[in-house]
Amino acid sequence: MCVGTYRDVEGLYLSRVFHEKAIRSALSYEPQPDDVFIVSYPKCGTTWMQYITYSIFNDGVCPQDMINFIKSATFLEFLGAEGAKTMPRPGAIKTHLPFDKQPYSERAKYIYVTRNPYDCCVSFYYHTKNFPAYEFENGTFDEFFDLFVRGRVDYGDYFDHLLSWYAHRGDPNVLFVTYEDLKKDSRSWILKVADFVGEDYGKKLRDQPA
After folding, report:
1. pLDDT 10s digits, 169-201
2. Given CA atoms 117, 122, 127, 132 in this order, what sign does their dihedral have?
3. 88: how many CB neighbours lie within 10 A of its CB?
């Protein structure tokens, strides 16, 4: 992997896939009272949770195309604050930010998704290998593993990221979810997510026939 592919932006270790202007804009975003954020370290189940919240907000209807999906589940660090401001509501804003960098408000809601580091690392390896911008097409897993444990990948150290949010797992506006629990008991956790984003959503799901 080319060392020049990465750099520090406002304390975040990120590849040049992310534009500095968008990153700084994202960090300056002021959350709205109805904002729902889906937060995770990369490759921990973010996209899965995006589809879940999209379906909850849209009565079980799946997105018709990727453009519509991206607009309704904007990626804050990639599109900047404007993407979140213009996103259709209700919707969920995706971020991979550690807690100390996350635009935060007690009136907004945060769904943090984590995954065991072994599976996260493997998924992150293939993600990095398959995107030419990372210049890692010929990289091996052993090489990537070394970078991963040293925090020399997008968003830095996995464990630091996890611990920053784990400390807030009991906050009333934070829902802490593991990929493994979501996979093991999808129904129960989808209902928890629905209740968390709004009691009416949970009630509506329970009233629907199985």
Report:
1. 999 999 999 999 999 999 999 999 999 999 899
2. positive
3. 11
Residue 7 φ/ψ, nearest 5 degrees: -160, 165
Contact 22, 80 (CB under 8 A): yes
Q: What CATH topology corresponds to 3-207? A: Rossmann fold (3.40.50)
Long-range contact list for 202-206, CB < 8 A, 24+ apart?
Answer: 204/59, 205/56
Quick one: CA torsion of 113, 43, 165, 7, rounded to 10 degrees?
-160
> Do 124 and 51 touch, CB atoms closer than 8 A?
no
Write the DSSP symbol of residue 105.
Answer: -
What residues does 36 pair with on adjacent strands?
109
Cα dihedral 195/40/133/13 (nearest 10) = 140
Catalytic site residue from 96, 127, 161, 168: 96
- 30's enclosing H/E stretch is none
Contacts of 184 (CB under 8 A, 6+ apart): none
Q: Is 96 a catalytic residue?
A: yes
Neighbours of 204 (CB within 10 A): 14
Cα–Cα nearest to 123, from 202, 179, 175, 172: 179
Domain boundaries, the chain: 3-207
Q: Of the candidates 38, 111, 125, 126, which has an alpha carbon nearest to the alpha carbon of residue 74?
A: 38
176 against 17, higher pLDDT:
176
pTM > 0.85? yes
SS3 category, 9:
strand
